[in-house]
Amino acid sequence: MLNLKGTGASPGIAIGPAQILESGKTKTVKRRILETDVQREQDRFIHAVSTAEAEISAILDDIPEELKEHSGVLKSHLMMLKDRMVFERTLKTIEADRINAEWALDKAVKHIHSLFAQVKDSYIRERMEDIEYVVKRVQALLSHSNEGLNLQELEEPCVIVAHELSPADTVQMFKQNVLAFVTVAGSRTSHTAILARALGIPAVVGLEHGIRHIMQDDLLIVDGLTGDILVSPDEQTLEKYQEKQQAYIRYRLEVIHNSSLPAETRDGYRVRIKANMELLDEIPSAISHGAEGVGLFRTEFLYLASKELPSEETLYSAYKEVIERLSPYPVTIRTLDIGGDKFVSSVSLDDEINPALGLRAIRLCLKEKGLFWDQLRAILRASAHGEVRMLFPLVSGRTEILQVKALLEQVKDELRDSNVPFDENMKLGIMIEVPSAVMMADILAREVDFFSIGTNDLIQYALAIDRVNESVSHMYQPLHPGVIRMIHSTVTAAHNAGILAAMCGEMAGEPMYAPILLGMGIDEFSMNAMVIPKVKRIIRRCIYDDCVRLVQRILDASSGSEIKYLLDEFLRANCPEEFEPADARYPEFAETGSPLLN
């Protein structure tokens, strides 16, 4: 028996024989061509792209009704095929460098790689995977190699083992004989992993060198939560995991039950639990997991999925759809949070020594007023179709709020003059994610209707820690006394001003932090939809007054480890079945604290 370790990407336990898919990097054929061959090579490339478009379109046409809401990923792949950085750059490179189509396409992709390498945001970096999927499909067509995955030929249930799988491959697994899949490439936030979770297929990614130890037809146990893969398990291990498999099924039934219950403590204190979203595909998941609206609708994908800046109509259409589909629940739309450490092909930005502290978010929008104007108009117009709140990121002081409000009034005047309906009383909020906003929270609270605390950036800026820098990432501590006091101070300032205090950062979606956030008085929690039932379970086991007393003790603590001890003590006393490995029905759920719990 061999125990391999990857990254759990989609929860669940599968047991079955391995089906090895031979795939990997195709060697690029490189040839110099004559000027008379340029047009022929360009035509070869255009034909390959057209064929790839037809293949993806055929997959889209065959998607079952249950998966229609996830078609946006494949639609974005269609757009990427004609993105100017891929399509036009390849055609120009063929002509300028006098090289064959395969080599020119490879050069175009390497150029995009160099741009994405500068990006710190993991979600944006991983969109490079989507570009590679479509490019690989085109390269296979150019070289006449068969890189496709024909799941129709699977005669028996099996575990797919591959170097990588594209979202198109994953969608085709629906109702086929695929028990789980294991890949070398990929991450939890890749589109392939997102689709696996939507399909309910257990998945482990990032196996790296371990894949060479798996042979065709080896019996595998795949634990999609812990990332464990057991090859040729002994009888005792097999029985143990068969029991875990049944326990997980029972656990999921309990989770489904919890998703429909209110987030209310045992003594009647009620909070709202909402979902963080960035794709329209995520709406069904938000609803099924019990979200009471969207606390953070990120708009960046609308800008990254297109070779040009999206038009007002494109933005309006997307906002309108999410609002109508979630009605009567409210939707909080965050304005563009991009620039600096992220990537917009159509906005020219100077290189910055420290992009995380540079021209981004609200600063970029106030500089690029045309870009901001379209977004404000689209959000205001969409507000006529349901309850909408507008959220502005990275606000550091009152002046920025006043500038935004002045511009917003101009947009409203323009809409009024054109008799375009919108919600005149739409609530405005700001992200609290820089220390200056915390220090001025009492003043800023007079200018807006709500705060939304973005703990990801707040912790990073407060502790001067770059989360993606491996040398210091271990010092990124949500329970640092300074962070806890900043959050408490912000909530107090909001409530003193009579406005709502929400949290949309990763702390809100960590179940074990729920008692602290309750005790601080957070009114709304917004998180990844999949973890909502788990957070509700914790909240429903707590007594609000006990949470307040816990926070009073924590505010006197002098270290993160002391706060962790006080929190562990509280959880053992109030939620033992959730956090005590000895008593948990599925110990790995408690030990990992993973968002994959649900």
Describe the protein.
- This protein has helices at 38-62, 72-81, 87-97, 101-116, 122-143, 167-171, 191-199, 235-259, 283-288, 300-304, 312-326, 361-367, 369-382, 398-417, 435-439, 441-444, 455-463, 481-496, 514-520, 532-541, 544-554, 560-574, 576-579, 587-592; strands at residues 2-5, 7-10, 13-20, 158-162, 178-183, 203-205, 219-223, 228-231, 272-277, 294-297, 331-334, 388-392, 427-432, 450-453, 500-503, 524-527.
- Residues 340-345 and 580-598 have low confidence and may be disordered.
- Helix 13 packs across helix 14 (398-417).
- It is of the alpha/beta class.
Question: Which characteristics define this entry?
Answer:
single chain; globular; TIM Barrel; alpha/beta; eight-stranded parallel beta barrel; Glucose Oxidase, domain 1; disordered C terminus; 16 strands; Enzyme I, Chain A, domain 2; 24 helices; eight-stranded mixed beta sheet; 598 residues
In short:
The chain has helices at 38-62, 72-81, 87-97, 101-116, 122-143, 167-171, 191-199, 235-259, 283-288, 300-304, 312-326, 361-367, 369-382, 398-417, 435-439, 441-444, 455-463, 481-496, 514-520, 532-541, 544-554, 560-574, 576-579, 587-592, and strands at 2-5, 7-10, 13-20, 158-162, 178-183, 203-205, 219-223, 228-231, 272-277, 294-297, 331-334, 388-392, 427-432, 450-453, 500-503, 524-527.
- State the CATH superfamily name of the largest domain: Phosphoenolpyruvate-binding domains
What structural class do helix, strand and pairing data support?
Answer: alpha/beta
Report the count of strand segments: 16
Morphology: globular
What count of domains describes the coordinates?
3
Oligomer: single chain
What CATH architecture label of the largest domain applies? Alpha-Beta Barrel
Instruction: Name the CATH class of the largest domain.
Output: Alpha Beta
Biggest sheet descriptor: 8 strands, mixed
